[in-house]
Amino acid sequence: MTNALRLLCLAAAVTLGLAAPARAAKDELVIGLTQFPSTFHPSIDSMLAKTYILSMARRPVTAYDPSWTLVCMLCETLPTFENGLAKREKTADGKQGVALTYTLKAGTKWADGRPVTTADVLFTWEVGRHPRSGLSNSELYRRILKVEARDARTFTLHLDRLTFDYNAVNDLHILPAHVEKPRFEAGDAAEYRNRTAFDQDTTNPGLYNGPYRITQVVQGSHVVLEPNAHWAGDKPAFKRIVVKTVENTAALEANLLAGGVDLIAGELGLPLEQAIAFENRADPRFTVTYKPSLVYEHLDVNHSSPILADKRVRQALMHGIDREALSRQLFAGRQQVADANVPPLDWVHTDDLAKYRFDPATAARLLDEAGWKLAGGVRRDAKGQPLTIELATTAGNRSRELVAQVLQAQWRAIGVDVRLKSEPPRIFFGETVTKRKFPHLAMFAWYSAPESVPRSTLHSTMIPAESNGWAGQNYGGYARPGMDKLIDAIEVETDRARRKALWAELQKLYADDLPALPLYFRADAFILPKPLKGVTPTGHQDPSTLWVEGWRWE
Amino acid sequence: MILSRLLQSLAVLLVMSFVVYGLMGLMPGDPIDLMIAADPHLTPEDAERLKALYGLDRPWTERYLRWLAQVAQGEFGYSRLYAKPVWEAMLPALGNTALLMAAALAVALAVALPLGILASLRPGSVFDHAVNLLAFASVSLPTFWVGLMLIVLFAVQLGWLPAGGMETVAAGGGGLGDRLAHLALPVATLALAGIGQYVRQMRAAMIGEAHHDYVRTARAKGCGPARVVLNHQLRNALLPVTTIVALEIGGLFSGALITETVFAWPGMGRLIYESVMGNDFNLALTGLLLATAMTLLGSILADLAYRWLDPRVSLK
Q1: For residues A82 and A423, what is the distance between their CA atoms, to the nearest angstrom?
Q2: Which pLDDT tens digit goes with each residue over B266-314?
Q3: pLDDT in the model for residue A441
Q4: Residue B56: pLDDT band by 50, 70, 90 thresholds?
Q5: Torsion sign over Cα A51, A57, A60, A64
Q6: Which of chain B's termini has less CB crowding within 10 Å, N or C?
Q7: In this predicted structure, what is the pLDDT of residue A122?
């Protein structure tokens, strides 16, 4: 027995000794994410994990920087009317179009040493506008009427309309023609998705033009990136970056504490409340940074509901909830209360609008005026029907479930009976919300770009219906000519001052009319090791990894 | 007889494929609906184009028949999520899961069978009560909680074992010891979850056999206690345990979603879950049918094992 025990101990010691997890050398960085990308093609399927990883290995032509300013990533200069690189022109059907001339940065190369050229741009446009190529977002490519290659580095895009963000071509992800063209032309374009080197030969260096290139992919587990020897920009500091997927956030935190990962990405890492709890434990090895983001948590209102069609009821509901206290108690005040749909970091944000402070007396008065009288704890209309509303949200999202319970309690105090309904995201977003099956309120978030015009969410032409294939994101069915007019005007107003005024008008209308009930703007929590410098959270859809070459371990 | 069982299994697989395809087809929303919800730039034209491209505009019955015709020709198609042939997307996960689940099953049996036998020798003793307590704890404790506690203890507090993954990805990792270390905690979690039921089955079967005449006869003939237990009692008591173990064979290929998620183990559980949620019919169906086929195969193997353990059993 004693010998057996000794043998067991020896075996354990050998195993553990061999296995002691090697702490990453500091020219090597291990990042923890909660999602693994299903595809690596930059234009097939939209997925945050893919954007996060590819941003280290590929650069779009333009992007929003951490200060939410549009900048060139692959181009030399942003075309504007002032510098002459943007020119108004008429389209063939007489509409107002625009011609934009971009020059690719000198020395931009794919990681196999081939230069990035206008031939690649032309090929990308060819793939993008092909109706069967399977690209998930072909809107930009449809807007590009023609691409002219002026030389190997300079090209002109002719767009079918002039909008204020005319020079933002963030969705133009240049594809390497020398790698992808033979695959694209090898058969039916509909099968291109199954032939693309991005998924069939992901470690091919010819696919990448950023500071890093992908050198290893273990499906569902991790992705390894190493420097692109042909990168012309600042030399990246890390010899290897490993992006490791740990879907369970408790396990991800344990991995961080155990040294299995060096940092947790804020874009796809711990939920805010878990990060706050982590910060409260005060681990001296890490810094927790919160970045207010564009993610707008709100309650979508079904305007077909006779109860909520009355603006006074919507306003009463806003006065009936203490959002400041909610943010303070549940999120340590890290999530900024929203007054409308434009976040404070956006330059078009205005503070000059109706604010809904917690005021149960005003809420009660508004409900009385709307015909909902208090009787036995619950308000009823003249026919005796109780004021009952259903609040649907995503199951499994702890923050939302907590918020829903708080809202239920606070609204009950003003006589509104709230029924909570939680559904799996697959059903909530795949059916209930998208097909407008929520009877009253649906709690979720919008994720958008800086200065994102809310056409898809607020314009009356964007109400999903069977007749339009359930496209559009105006799930509440909000239709106001005033809002439509403002949206139409903002989109084509290129003068910044006039546009800012229009945005202010839109936010005032939003706050007064309440197409949706604003809650707060989410904050991303970045848990970073103290020696890691240069990680700048953006708070928008372009992740911090777009500037990975500036990351240093000091 | 075996041929007949195999034909029955094929019929079961056919019915299962129809049921699984139908259930997935009835799930609300499709990948394009979800894409529309996530991407404000997606236009009605984009949605229509993509639905037609992926065949999502056709009734699920029509899609099922097309899929069945392809499978009959040995063509399992491409995974929509991973843009790869189904088997190419599935094989790495299949290997990972088989390794994890087989190791967990082996550890669970290695611990549970001796404990069950020893506990059955003196029912009601302190040892028996202790084993019962362990068994109840094993079946009662949620796997995700056990997994997280093991991570906190062995990875975070003691730093002896890695918290997740299959190997250390950083330079210097990836050796045999490193892989074994990564296997330790998920195997322990799954083994702990399995030990309870095996212990209880083994103990109950052994106690049941102890009262049979052949055991008394063996003792009367002068067989020692060890010989009675190991040569006579155990052989018969193994029959019900064999059934349970055989049915676990399907699990070797379908994975353990929660444990795989907690330990970031890229196995079949996560792959099947993601493929079902992502409406990746080809991948989900092949994964689920493979697990079903293996369960049916396990059932046939259990019958063969009965015959080996007890020649009186016939496969008629």
Answers
A1: 51
A2: 999 989 888 887 778 889 889 988 888 888 888 888 888 777 777 666 5
A3: 97
A4: confident
A5: positive
A6: C
A7: 97
**For the residues A178-186, what does the mean pLDDT come to?**
96
Both tokens assigned to A173: 């992800």
Q: How many whole angstroms separate alpha carbon A463 and alpha carbon A456?
A: 8
Q: What band does A2 get if pLDDT is binned at 50, 70 and 90?
A: very low
CA gap A440, A315 in Å, rounded:
14
Q: What is the dihedral of CA B158, B159, B160, B164, to 10 degrees?
A: 120
Q: Distance (Å, rounded) from C-alpha A61 to C-alpha A70? A: 11
Alpha helices in A245-287 (DSSP H): 249-258, 272-280
Of B29, B48, B170, the CB nearest to A430: B29
Q: A395 to chain B: which residues are within 8 Å by CB?
A: none
Q: Which of A15, A21, A432 sits opposite B168 (nearest CB)?
A: A21
Count how many residues are written for chain A: 554
DSSP A520: E
Which amino acid, B148? L
pLDDT number for residue A17? 40
Residues B196, A297 contacting (CB under 8 angstroms):
no
Give the mean pLDDT of chain B. Answer: 85
| B84 CA: distance to closest CA in chain A (Å) | 6
pLDDT at A42: 92
Which DSSP symbol is given to A338?
P
Give chain B positions within 8 Å (CB) of A224. Answer: 169
B34 pLDDT band, cuts 50/70/90, is: low
User: What is the spatial distance between Cα B260 and Cα B147, in angstroms, rounded to a whole number?
Assistant: 10
Identify the closest residue of chain B to A196 by CA–CA distance.
B83
CA-closest candidate to residue A441, choices A296, A301, A297: A301
Note the Cα B255 to chain centre separation in Å: 5
Identify all chain B residues contacting A187, using CB atoms and an 8 Å cutoff. none
With a pLDDT cut of 70, the percent of chain A lying above it is 94
**Residue A12 scores a pLDDT above 50:** no
pLDDT of residue B40: 58
Sheet arrangement for strand A144-149 = A86-90, A96-103, A154-159, A144-149
Q: How far apart are CA A363 and CA A244, in angstroms?
A: 49
Whether B316 has its CB under 8 Å from any CB of chain A: the answer is: no
Cβ of A199 and B277 within 8 Å? no
Rounded-to-integer distance, Cα A107 and Cα A114, Å? 10
> Phi and psi (nearest 5°) for A72?
-80, 135
How sure is the predictor about A308, in pLDDT bands with cuts at 50, 70 and 90? very high
Asked if the model's pLDDT at residue A23 lies above 50, the reply is no
End-to-end Cα distance, chain A: 52
**Pair A417, A388: CB distance under 8 Å:** yes
Instruction: Please compute the mean of the pLDDT values over residues A457-474 and round it to a whole number.
Output: 85
A38 contacts on B by Cβ (under 8 Å):
81-83, 274, 278
| Helical (H) or strand (E) element with B61 | helix B60-72
Q: How many CB pairs under 8 A join A and B?
A: 220
Tokens 């056990």 locate to B146
What lies within 8 Å, CB to CB, of B14 at 6+ separation is: none
Whether A152 has a pLDDT exceeding 90, the answer reads yes
What ipTM is given for this predicted complex?
0.79
Distances (CA, A) of A158 to A88, A142, A148, A342, A482: 10, 11, 8, 30, 31
